[in-house]
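idk why but the lab printer keeps eating my pages so im just putting this in chat instead. protein + 2-aminohexanedioic acid:
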Amino acid sequence: MPHHNLIDGEWVAGGEQVANINPSDTSDVVGTYSFATAAQTQDAIAAARAAFPAWSVGNIQTRAEMLDRIGTEILARSRELGQLLSREEGKPLAEGIGETVRAGNIFKFFAGEVLRSGGESVPSVRPGISVEITREPLGVVGLITPWNFPIAIPAWKIAPALAYGNCVVFKPAELTPGSAWALADIIARSGVPAGVFNLVMGRGDVVGATLAASPDIDGISFTGSQGVGRRVAAQAVANMTKVQLEMGGKNPQVILDDADLETAVTLSLQSAFFSTGQRCTAASRFIVTNGIHDRFVTALAQRVQALRVGHALTGDTEIGPVVDQRQLDKNFEYAGSAAEEGARLVAGGQRLERATHGFFMAPALFADTTPSMRLNREEVFGPVAGIIRVRDYEEALALANDTPFGLTAGIATTSLKYASHFRRHAQAGMVMVNVPTAGVDYHVPFGGRKGSSYGAREQGRHAADFYTTIKTAYIAPY
Ligand code: UN1
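predcted complex ->
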């Protein structure tokens, strides 16, 4: 049975049926999914528009209960949904379940936020007048999500969108429609009125482009690559549509001489290689001061070499496959260019064969890299990282900031002086002191600077900055 799109409360067959392939075992078809046409995407936008007037002023108790029910079902089914997620995306089961739990918690958080959204009342500078500042829903929002967090990222866009009274047209990544469909099915059964939430699976150049170019959409929230993000923004801005973009990273992890070696190595392993390095928050540039450099390289190389790479659903796997052949080719291309430019491979880097045919690659760690190498300039989005040796903290900070991106920046140090300085001067949206650059909390702002992000922050209470518009009312008694 193909999985259809949800448009105006009905499950609708799309223009083509597409197989969802398991990257751990390419003979395993996770399911078939209907990809929507441009006309169906327009139908979904129209349905959302029609549903907006009633939904935007609807009862907040009903809305809160609905979001709470969605969260409850996700949490109750976290094992099964986590398994589906790992099967279609390739992250190990524990990570798949963890991500599902995170999605459930996000819906619970925003269920609470529905009841907490108040305004401000301030005196006017003119006598006898009062001023009230309130938030109103933005309108119809188009949500475009990537394949690497196929349930958590949809959750952190859909939950606040609905909580603050918006209507949604949701376009998940082509490679991972399974988790998105399962989430849409839960939302559809939660009591949401027809048209308030719509699912349009499909291709970026069909569904995504239709959303981005639509004059009937009030906001686009996009997470994905920098190239696509820029195109989406350009199209949206042509219609004066509000845009929020979360794009790539080239996140630095600084290791100072005074760091605890074990802490530094463990957090580096997690940051760079878990989730197969397929996180925009992944650390991919290790910037290491002289005094600890050699010990760090040896210890991290050993840990990387020992990582168990395999099928996402088998018990002891730590690193699953790369998501598809195209991404695998890209990883090898970056590893190849690093080697050509003189970097020294100290662990991994080869194609791996396993019992099933999947896109397996041994995580690759390069030492003796320089800041100008392609590996250290461009986002790879795979398990490939480089180490740069530096003299001191000052050089480390300068290199950490020498990037067009600015999502996360990490430092491992036992010095309060350097930790505090780095926290203040790292040009990134999120700074991590002795914790991994990736793997963030779900209830606090998420986002970056420079080429990594554009527009308001996501997650936590700050999500309201994108999903609402502010009204200032001046009131005189009569
Ligand atoms: C995390 O590191 O916990 O696409 C989340 C990404 C990010 C999410 C990272 N938007 O990788």
